[in-house]
Amino acid sequence: MGLFDKINKNDLISKAKGAVDSASNGMKTAMGEAKAKHEQKKAEQAAYDAEMKEKAITKAEEIVASIKSYSNEESVFEKTGGKELQDFTKLFYDKILMPANSVGNSHISMYPYIDAKRLEKFKKGRTDYEETEVPLIYIRSSEKQEILITENKLYFSVSLEEDRKYFAKSSVDCSEISKFVFELGETESVFKCDENILATFKTNKSVKEDFITLTEYFERIGNCDFEITDEDTDAIIKEKIGEKVLQEVKKYMVFEDELMLYFAWGLDSLSAKDYIVCTDKQIIIMDREAFGMTANVKQFYYDDITSASTEQNSNSSDLTGFLIESALTSLTKTCNLVISVAGSISRINTLYKVEAERVVAVYHQCRKALKVSASQPQVVVQQTAVDPVEQIRKLKEMCDLGIISEEEFNIKKADLLAKI
Description:
Elements: H1 3-69, H2 82-97, E1 108-110, H3 116-123, E2 135-140, E3 146-150, E4 153-159, E5 167-173, E6 180-183, E7 188-193, E8 196-202, H4 205-223, H5 230-250, E9 260-265, E10 275-279, E11 282-288, E12 295-301, E13 305-311, H6 319-332, E14 334-341, E15 344-352, H7 353-375, H8 388-400, H9 406-418
């Protein structure tokens, strides 16, 4: 190898080393720039986060101050409280709110049915929540906004308009609040505390049902009207389900004085809805086939039902399949409603657990009423014998006064003489 070859080789090695060093320096520079950009973005995000949290605190303070500034002579729960209020809330949920509500789509839950996990999540990180409080009403709106009403406090978590991921959270004593207002709009409905809008809802069927029932609840609280009759329940169900469905249900209500005590929409319907109706005489089940092409109607009169109960719904014969289905059922909170009539058993699996349990409760209520009625002694009313001669005399006076015609008098006179 000549001197020239050695020089070329060294030159190539030197150039290669230079290229490697240059690339390494370039990579270090790029990494440094990327790191600087990341740090800058992180700092900007931290600053933005701090700014939004500060705005959330400010908004919460403004909401509280605005509510407190409203002049009110009487607080919302001033006339009632304690066990009376709790008992009425449960009764109201059972007999007014839940019937004909789409439980899966409803924005409301009430004592004692408020989901414990959802409540714990709501309370998490709050320093203003009193653990001794009994939650009465839980309302969830769009963008994860939440309202919790207890006997003593209103707790709220409402999103900022600037960024819906941030929430203004605080509470107000109910003694500072005179009324809750629920206003339905064409596209948007609002929940107000006095004159302050706390939450907005996109107007749909579920929101309309919820607002109807919440308005009824607070009107009854204000009027101390704590008795809910079967007629009240029947009226609210009719208002919720609408005229079209009402006329369909009436086809199967054979008694003139028959009242609807409970109504639930099914879960597995497609284009048309299944439903179950409990009246004070019977249970009616509309079970539609796919797309509502045909419908099977089942009617069970309380006199004929031997038992009604709920059970875990599962179609699996093996233990593994049962456990899997049980887990899914637990998540969706569904179960079977089992009705036994004259040895035959009907299973209905289109209900949420709370709905199926309500059907069973209504059945026992009506069944008990039938037994009580049957055990009551029959009162025989004896009619006083009518004197035909006296009746003829009175009829003659009516004829002379022109109240009845001569022809009518003669016909009735002949009937009475025939009885002598």
